[in-house]
Amino acid sequence: MPAHRDVTAFDQRAARYEQGWLGRLHSxxxxxxxxxxxxxxxxxxxxxDVGCGTGYLLRLLAxxxxxxxxLAGIDPAPSMIEAAVRSAGDxxxxxxxxxxxxxxxxxxxxxxxxxxxxFDHWSDQQAGLRECGRVLMPGGCLVLVxxxxxxxxxxxxxxxxxxxxxxxxxxxxxxxxxxxxxxxHDLYGIIKAVTATT
Length: 198
What we know:
Blueprint: H1 7-13, H2 20-40, E1 46-50, H3 56-64, E2 70-75, H4 78-86, E3 93-97, E4 110-116, H5 125-135, E5 136-147, H6 167-176, E6 180-188, E7 191-197
Parallel strand pairs: 1-2, 1-4, 2-3, 4-5
Antiparallel strand pairs: 5-7, 6-7
């Protein structure tokens, strides 16, 4: 497994990830992401959450998509996956430890892929987007949510050098990965969502 920034920190936060003000913020972002996903694809058969954390978003989507046969979540932090499995409550939910850059799924199996506030932590964002495109069916939709703003450009000097922290850079990576119909949405302050299709 390649080195991923902050995996240890997320592993340690798993038990209380959905609690406190930060937990409420993550829940609000997930709620808005679920609404956007629903507007993009009203009835997917299979859904993937890349960087699923404790599975909160997938639990929401399971309730919104009663006809979906599988909702899969992947996260590099083992404790997050353990928390997701404990709180699943739906036999269609499947969780596994893994990274965006090497998704453990065959080609063209998902109708919808979502990712909320994990994109900035991917070791290789371009490779992760290619993998998302690979596992999506033709015409499948990606809903990607993270911090994107020109105000974040100074952070590219330090540890986030090479990351996509602006709409322009993220759009370039999506296009290079083969995505089309790239549309940006304001979600929550500098937290933006981008939808794109394969």
